[in-house]
Inverse folding.
């Protein structure tokens, strides 16, 4: 079966530069470490507890960072990172309501340097991705996830010299 869907794509120019924004973003997220998950074994209860404990203040977890800039040669190197981010509880509920929704989880955020000193972020709105499942519970959870992402981006884009200086 083939189905056409409408996706709302967001492209935003950030006030922070690439390094400051990515530093703040990573700092604000809980980090999923595969070795810690393996140590828990296959117990769903222990995994759920672990994921809850590693969530950042906004209950979002960083599942992975793809460093797409590493695919370019040194001469044409660009700063670009794709973040895979989610809220474990919301993700579990969404997938429980419709397994195919797992295709869109975790959510992907793409951050790149448009030109020196100017960063961009792009992502698809979760509510538009999950609208295709025509399920009010999934839509409610996707809007909650979307709001968490928007708040995370706002926090990470805060112009804070002090926070970034600890990295330099």
């Amino acid at each position: 079966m083939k189905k056409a869907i409408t996706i709302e794509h967001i492209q935003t120019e950030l006030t922070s530069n690439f390094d400051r924004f990515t530093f703040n973003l990573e700092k604000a997220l809980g980090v999923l470490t595969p070795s810690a998950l393996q140590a828990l074994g296959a117990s769903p209860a222990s995994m759920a507890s672990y994921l809850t404990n590693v969530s950042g203040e906004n209950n979002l977890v960083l599942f992975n960072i793809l460093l797409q800039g590493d695919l370019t040669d040194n001469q044409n190197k660009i700063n670009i990172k794709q973040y895979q981010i989610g809220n474990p509880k919301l993700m579990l509920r969404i997938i429980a309501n419709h397994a195919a929704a797992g295709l869109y989880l975790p959510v992907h955020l793409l951050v790149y340097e448009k030109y020196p000193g100017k960063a961009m972020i792009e992502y698809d709105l979760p509510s538009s991705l999950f609208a295709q499942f025509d399920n009010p519970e999934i839509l409610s959870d996707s809007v909650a996830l979307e709001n968490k992402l928007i708040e995370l981006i706002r926090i990470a884009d805060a112009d804070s010299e002090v926070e970034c200086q600890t990295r330099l």
